[in-house]
Amino acid sequence: MLMAQVTPRYALRPKPWYQRWWGIIIICCLTVILVVGSAFVFYTASIYWKVKTGQTTYQQLYADLAGDQNSPPVETFDAPDAPYLGNPEAKIVLVEFGDFSCPFCARSSPVIKQLANLYPKDLKIVYRHFTIINEGSILAANAAACAQEQGNFAFWALNDILYTNQDKFTADQMKTWAQELGLESGRFNTCLDSQRYQSRIRRDLAAGWRAGAKRTPTFFLNGQKIEGYQPLENWRPVIDQLIEIVKQYNL
Fold first, then answer.
1. What is the pTM (predicted TM-score) of this model?
2. Cβ distance 164 to 106 under 8 Å?
3. Where are the domains of the chain?
4. How far is it, in rounded angstroms, from Cα 3 to Cα 174?
5. Superfamily the domain 58-248 falls into
6. In what order do the strands lie in the sheet containing 84-86?
């Protein structure tokens, strides 16, 4: 005997994709992406507006992002009479507070020269005296300042000699090195004997303490403090990122 087929009143239909577990996860992920993306766009737009309208500077913003609210802006770390490498108009400024008696400063010196060669247009590197180790540090700083009096190049030439001869710091030896570099001996010797730049050296030391330097070398990259020797591979990604930010915001 044949049985009649009964059609259920309510046929089961598959759930739409947005009600399934995997659909709910997709919706949640898209929502998070949308919220984060909107916040990022708003934040970057606000930075651009503040810089363009003169409410702040790029250096100060970077120092704030570094989390050191008490650090002065990078402009106070860079002194107009300090020796430098690179582009004097660069937006990215690396200030070193160093001591010629410091072995870690000696290790850093060739790395700094490499950075200057890698970023000749984008980076300004400034050296300031932070003479905290011994009396030889002060003598060497005076000699370097007297060399700088005869040209920025002379400072960096003597800089190399000082860092590779840290056990030979005497006044007579400084004068010999200056003569070997082709500097005007009489001018250099008079400068060194009179300690002509002692006040500048003390000013640099005071500036370092105020900035928060406690050891050598201490660097400030657009206001962000970086302590100790850093190999080249540590510097490059940070500087590359800063260059991209400067270009992005046309700073």
1. 0.70
2. yes
3. 17-52, 58-248
4. 116
5. Glutaredoxin (3.40.30.10)
6. 84-86, 123-129, 92-98, 218-221, 224-227
Residue 44 amino acid letter? T
pLDDT in tens, the chain (251 residues): 455 555 555 555 677 777 777 778 888 878 877 775 665 556 566 655 555 544 455 555 555 544 444 444 444 489 999 999 999 999 999 999 999 999 999 999 999 999 999 999 999 999 999 999 999 999 999 999 999 999 999 999 999 999 999 999 999 999 999 999 999 999 999 999 999 999 999 999 999 999 999 999 999 999 899 999 999 999 999 999 999 998 888 76
